[in-house]
Amino acid sequence: MKKDPSSRIFDLKQFGEYGDVNPSVTDSATYTFMQAKTMTDTFHGEAEGCFLYSRHWNPSNKYLADALAAMEGTEAGWVTASGMGAITTALLQLCNSGDHIVSSMTTYGGTYAFMQNWLPRFNIEVTFVDITNLEAVKAAIRPTTKVIYTETMTNPLLQISDLPELSKISKAAGAKLVVDNTFTPMMVAPFQQGADVVVHSMTKFINGKNDCVAGAICASNAFINELIDVNNGTAMLLGPVLDPYRSSSILKNLHTLHIRMKQHSYNAMYLAKKFKEVGLKFNYPGLEEHRGYATLTKMLNQQYGYGGMISIDMETAEQANRLMEKMELADVGYLAVSLGYFKTLFSNSGKSTSSEVPAEVQKEMGLSEGLIRFSVGLDNDIEDTWQRIKTCLKEIEVI
Ligand SMILES: *Cc1c(COP(=O)(O)O)cnc(C)c1O
Which of 134, 151, 355, 370 has the highest CB neighbour count under 10 A? Predict the structure, then answer.
């Protein structure tokens, strides 16, 4: 297998019905058969190349899922209607009532809420740990632990998970390592670092256009087949399937992801160096002084850089709001949640995408109420963007 994820996607030959250079969109919920037996076989997963019903598989979804599997280096993939759809579908397939999950304390707010508030209803317990503290992860393992859950680069603190080490711990415990790779596509391939299941919010970098929500699960053939099992699969029975029109449009965007990631990383690194020069309190995993720098470097596909996510700490929510409002007016980007867009997006994590996390837990994990998370855009003139940010910082007398 080729080492570079974008080359693996590039090498796929996915044509449409008439030799179209983009695969055809299959605009159909159901599929007809010439022989009744083929339908029965398809139902039981035994008729290769046949489609049955679009909640199970749709050819357009399959093209995108295959491309994502190529990117992540897994045998298979399945696409969902949102990132949360991917996360919940994967976790509910892996855990039964009475089981236990060890999760990073810092994850996407919706993931945290699902584990903290919703899973206990079904008697699935979750222990939240500092995922960079491997001893704490080991200590949290129980005989009933089925999953270790983390994000390659955590939201919003940009901590780095040591996936090879977490994989060893999970294998020793007989558990599965599930990794959300939303912040670091192309940069890190978690499956190749020992993860068992990789989940994505395609809403972010993969699609990169902010025109839809979507998600994906990449894993072994066996696991994807379990998900779509007509009797017991969460994907089949909970039904979080992606619309084929949307799959088709995301697939085209996926083909430019490698170029976009390089530019996001270049721009974020540029800003990180400027933030350092003026003495701001900031966080970027691409600078040596970041706690996770060495860990990220060992897992990284270097050519894609250290990613487009950077945060600064303005100490108080009031100060963060003042800066964000200035930056919106100065056309630095948009005050908005989400990330991975061609424009820079910024938001105060504690009051938005992590607001599901109670204030005292935010404090415990080291999430400052003044934290502004930037998803740095594809600006062609990042020096100009920096000058705008600098003017805003001066106006509120931070520098
Ligand atoms: C946005 C996000 C999600 C949720 O994805 P949706 O597409 O909004 O459902 C999950 N994980 C991370 C890291 C995210 O940034």
Answer: 151
Compute, in angstroms, the gap from residue 355 CA to the centroid of ligand 1: 14
Residue ranges around ligand 1 (CB below 6 Å):
82-84, 108, 110-111, 151, 155, 180, 182, 201, 203-204, 213, 215
**pLDDT tens sequence across 195-205:** 999 999 999 99
Instruction: Name the nearest CA neighbour of 28 among 51, 50, 10, 62.
Output: 51
Q: Ligand 1 atom 11: the closest Cα is on which residue?
A: 108
Answer yes or no: do 134 and 81 share one domain.
yes
Q: Which domain holds residue 210?
A: 5-254
Write down the pLDDT at residue 350: 84
What is the model's pLDDT at position 1?
79
Residue 236 and residue 370 share a domain: no
pLDDT score for 3: 87
Question: Looking at residue 351, what is its pLDDT?
Answer: 82
Residues of the chain with pLDDT under 70: none
Note the pLDDT of residue 361.
84
